[in-house]
Amino acid sequence: MRLPEKLYGTGRYMRASRRSAATTKASHANPTVATDGRVVAAFFGSEGLFVLNAVSGKTLWTHDFGTLSLGLKGDRGSEWGFASSPVLFEGSVVVQCDTHDRAFVAAHELRTGKQRWMVKRDEYPAWSTPTVFEGAGGPLLITSSSRQTRAQNARTGAEVWSFADETEVRVPAPLVAGDRVVIGGGYPSGRRFFALDARTGKLLWDNASGGPYTPTPVAWGQHLFICGDNGVLGCYTLADGKRVFQQRLPKPGSFSASPVVAEGRLFLASEDGEIHVVKASPEYTVVASNTMPEGVWATPAPAGKTLYIRTSAALYAIRA
After folding, report:
1. Do 123 and 165 meet the contact criterion of CB atoms below 8 Å apart?
2. Which of 28, 98, 206, 280 could form a disulfide with 194 if both were Cys (CB 3.0 to 4.6 A apart)?
3. Average confidence (pLDDT) per 10 residues, the chain, 320 residues
């Protein structure tokens, strides 16, 4: 699939990144693409939203949101790159944009590109991806931002509830586990994380430390697993947030990819290319550690019996 020529040029985003501080972790394609098998939605921040035919690669439509500049709060000259990924829901593609100059969430019709709704909000820069909660009262779009966690009617954008937790550099996505949503992230690394009732926004529990900075947590059974950027893995009970264990993974390194679970095992990928396999249980058990040829910043994707791993140089498909 060849991307439109516009993405190879010197658009607004690329001009902005030259004039300001950047991070070596960022690229012009930070967001993960989304697909329903028929179309692919790819978001490139200031270069726009692109929806393509999943089979032919033909561009169906594009939408330009203007300059989307993100960096340190209070420093409009800093530029760390866009990262929030598009989410598909009931024939719409939803994007979360919390930037220096403006913040909004918008939904566009997947087939035509027509905007279904847009909601502006008062926010600081954030890099989190929205999550959809399918509750009995109707689907909610939950967004984690640097000032508040919000739940919106996923079909109309109308706000249903909000919860304040002001911080900087919010990256992890909201984690839905049953009828609760776990929120973490922000500066400094290891700060508080908490669980809310996904239907009402009511605080269920609050843990003062141990939260993630970049990776999104993952839940398995009755437990929550959090991998820190420093390679420290924590296990907590979903019911009350109490810590079960906290252990450093076998080889030191930095972690940007989120942990994933497949067949009762956690897969944790480091920027050095180490893939650690740990049992998703309340007892810390390392099953294996495997080395990829290159570093890994993207979250691995399990599908059936295959694990897809995107390194800095290639895409690998691994199966038993």
Report:
1. no
2. 206
3. 38 38 72 96 96 97 95 87 96 97 96 97 96 94 97 97 96 97 95 98 97 97 97 97 97 93 97 97 97 96 95 94
The amino acid sitting at 179 is D
Position 78 scores a pLDDT of: 85
> Which amino acid is located at 81 in the chain?
G
Whether the Cβ atoms of residue 222 and residue 240 lie closer than 8 Å to each other:
no
Quote the CA–CA distance of 255 and 232 in Å, as a whole number: 9
pLDDT of residue 20: 39
What's the rounded Cα separation, in Å, for the pair 6 and 193?
40
pTM for the structure as a whole = 0.91
What are the distances in angstroms from CA 36 to CA 50, 83, 132?
14, 20, 15
DSSP per-residue codes, 200-237: T--EEEEESS---SSSPPEEETTEEEEE-TTSEEEEEE
Rg of the Cα atoms in the chain: 19
Phi, psi (rounded to 5 degrees) for 286: -85, 125
Question: Is 13 in contact with 30 (CB distance < 8 Å)?
Answer: no
Q: Are 84 and 46 in contact (CB under 8 A)?
A: no
The torsion angles phi and psi of 265, rounded to 5 degrees, stand at -125, 140
Helix, strand, coil share (%) of the chain residues, nearest 5: 5, 40, 55
